[in-house]
Every structure is written in structure tokens, then in C-alpha cells.
């Protein structure tokens, strides 16, 4: 049986499929936002079809948690993008 786990030192503590580095959010985004078939996502990520459905079920059963992780990721991406466009001045 596929389990969803969270450990602080893997994927920043976001929920993931046990024994992998495949995040629940990543699976959701590929299937729902990316409009890929679950079987194709399973093949692409080298996980079972059951693991894909377990990740999707977890996403839908924990909407507040997933919303928080999505917001944190989006904030981090925005910050990194801004920093890469205007790097700090070199120390003199």
C-alpha cells in the first residue's frame, strides 16, 4: 500500500510518496493542471498507478495543507526570480 509521508529534510517537508522524492503537489499538477493521464504520470515518474491515485486523494483530503504548501512554493519562486533579476551588489 502506498503511503504519503512528510519529513523536513526531503522536499522541504511537503507531503510526498513514501520512499520517493515525488511530491503530492507535483503529481496533482501533472494530472490536473497539466492535463496528463494518471497512467502516463505513473510511467513518467516511475511510480505505480495506485501511488498516483493515493497522492491525488491526499491532495483532495487535505486542501488547507496543500494550499499552504502551494503558497509557500509560489512565494519562494517569486523571491528567487526577483533575486536572479537583480543580484546584490558585490562587496567592495
UniProtKB/TrEMBL annotation:
Region (Disordered): 72-92
Bias (Polar residues) ranges: 77-86
Pfam families: DUF433
Gene3D superfamilies: Winged helix-like DNA-binding domain superfamily/Winged helix DNA-binding domain
Protein's name in the database: DUF433 domain-containing protein
Species this protein is from: Halonotius aquaticus
